[in-house]
Amino acid sequence: MVRVMDVVIGIDVGTGSARVGVFSIDGRKVATAVLSTRTWRPKADFAQQSTADIWSAVCRGVREAMVHVPDARVCGIGFDATCSLAVVGPGGAPLSVDPDGAAEQDVILWADHRAVAEADEINAGGYDVLRYVGGVISPEMETPKLLWLSRHMPDVFAQAERFFDLPDYLTWRATGSDARSCCSTTCKWTYLAHEQRWDDDFFRKIGLGVLVDEGFRRIGTDIRALGGHVGRGLSARAAEEMGLPEGTPVGVSAIDAHAGGIALLGAVHSGDLTNDDTALNRSIALICGTSSCHMAVSRNPRFVRGVWGPYSGAMVPDMWLNEAGQSATGALIDFIVDSHPAAAALRAETGDIYRALNAQVEALEAGAIAGTSSRNLHVQPDFFGNRSPYADPTARGAVVGLPLSATVDDLARLYLATIQGLAYGTRDILDVLNREGYDIRTISATGGLTKNPLYLREHANATGCAIILPREPDAVLLGAAILGAMAAKIYPSLGVAMARMSHAGDTIRPDEKAHAFHRAKMAVFRDLHRDQLRYREMMNSAARGADIREAERHPSG
To answer: Which domain holds residue 202?
Structure first.
């Protein structure tokens, strides 16, 4: 007799792929599949995707993963995805968000910065809801993007029947239910979860009063807590597409980083973390890949300027979330390395350029304190703006100390300095959180960058925190699976599910010998930030003066 194994499926739609993980109910991954998704970049600051492309990848991924466990019984499904804006037209048809109307491109990717002007305008209003996004709304959030659509593509805005955060689009497509996640709506749409309402006055004043007049039906009226279920499970259509039973329970969705946070915080404590305020106060989840998110939760709201939140129930029910982040981390490392003259030859020679660079850094450090070979080279990493703690999307990066040479050693030092710059950015975030009541001593980390030992070492040394890796390296997928387990009612609460399905793995501890070096380099890092602001103001002032003089020479009329 074949023994049937109960499993849950976690589905993670990231920036460039759809990943499917099949997990036992105690959190062991037993099968997986990964399929690429497309991104179009029609011009600077624009990034677009397709829900049809994404959904096709999801369904194919589920079928591929389940081939490896044909006798398993799927008890529940959980979804997470990037916080991207999906626009759905009449009858569920895609509405293009491309300025030239490119077909099927109906998703504004999270990293799209087309709405910078709209975000600036909203921030200038000083609205009360901004207190719950760290005081400053980001162009990566959905409200500025909706405002951009209403102004620049009014026909699309008017035709849209629904606007979804991508995680909620996936549960809608899976079940037909219009329910939305407290995670997405609170973190990216300005829903006030602690009051269970949208702010009518805010939407009217920023120019989106039509959403108020409609009773917010296009952005969500059924807002559900994480750990719940959506609709009646998989619809007949979605079940056929995935090759799963109709009615399979589907969990309330999460943003990808928040799904990772659910799994990571569960791994740092053997019991229900939600009952241990000390452990909560000392822990932060770091989800580090193309970009990075830093997630900390507390029993009571903590208002931290430049850090998103506090968000009520946005990751763990009955807890307040502070969400910091860096807009380009893995993307920045790739950019710095790929731009260097020595990179192409090293990649061709070794096949794995990052393994080769790590070995080169190790050789440069022989007999010295770890990390010190970059002592005269400094990278300010805000090449794609600063998400936290300065909330400045117009910030730009800097490299100081470049030599007149371009050897592999030079590349290795620059690579190390870039990783250190990112680590100091994390240290900046921890410092502002700790000033507002946290006492963070442990970083629980997941994501592609945790496969890089140099990234982990420098973050431990720069922050002084122990870094805990989960036993299951795909913590984002596991977080989605935990939501699937909750939809199936396998566990009585999300806190219990986190404890039962998440487990700690290796720990990287800081090297005390490197403390003085990083203290000094951190001071340089902060000076670089202040200097950048001063330089920008000097040049903006000069440009304003030039504009005035030009206007005086050529008066209108």
So the answer is: 5-242
